[in-house]
Amino acid sequence: MNDILLQRITYNPDICHGKPCIRGLRYPVEFILELLSSDMTIEEILIDYDDLEREDILAALLFASRLTQVKSMHKITS
């Protein structure tokens, strides 16, 4: 199931500067995460953006979860 969800995340250098997006639409994953972090529910997002599907939101969350699964982080000095 997770692999099917992650197939909804696409990369195209001609769409949103190559950022990971939902199904080739102009909805970057980061935008979906910002909506959720602003306290919007999945249902509210789906009402406001009718071309999105519930699985798109779940895919964005799964994608973000996978990005955070690192063994350790190191501060980069400048």
TrEMBL record:
Entry-linked Gene3D superfamilies: Winged helix-like DNA-binding domain superfamily/Winged helix DNA-binding domain
InterPro entries for this protein: DUF433, Homeodomain-like_sf, WH-like_DNA-bd_sf
Protein name: DUF433 domain-containing protein
Organism the protein comes from: Gloeocapsopsis dulcis AAB1 = 1H9
Lineage, top ranks: Bacteria, Bacillati, Cyanobacteriota, Cyanophyceae, Oscillatoriophycideae
